[in-house]
Amino acid sequence: MNIVDAVYSGGLSLTLTFSDGTVRVVDFGSFIRNHPHPQYDKYLDPDVFRTFAIENGNVVWGDDWDMIFPVEILYSGRIQ
């Protein structure tokens, strides 16, 4: 399973399209707020959050993949 498209959905959410055609809106805000860390905190700013990219079938943030989640968790639509 891979992510084939990701679109900013407002706030700290993305609409993710997976290789099987499934589409999920995933809110990353709760995770970032509940796991304070300098590596993540900058992504509370929606302008910085929007700098995501799709690499190797996953959505990532930062040049060194500061923030990345297992595709299976993103597929569920809920991250904690």
| Unreliable sequence segments | none
What kind of sheet is the major sheet? Answer: 3 strands, antiparallel
SS content category:
alpha+beta
Radius of gyration (Å)? 12 Å
Instruction: Give the number of domains.
Output: 1
**Series of H and E elements:** EEEHHHEEEH
- Strand element count: 6
* Helix content percent band: 25-40%
How far apart lie the N and C ends?
Answer: 20 Å
Strand content: 35-45%
CATH architecture group name: 2-Layer Sandwich
Overall average residue pLDDT: 93
Morphology: globular
Please summarize what this structure is:
With 80 residues, the protein is α+β, with helices and mostly antiparallel strands. It is built from 4 helices and 6 strands; from the N terminus they run βββαααβββα. It has helices at residues 29-34, 38-41, 46-49, 71-76, and strands spanning 3-10, 13-18, 23-27, 53-55, 58-61, 67-68.
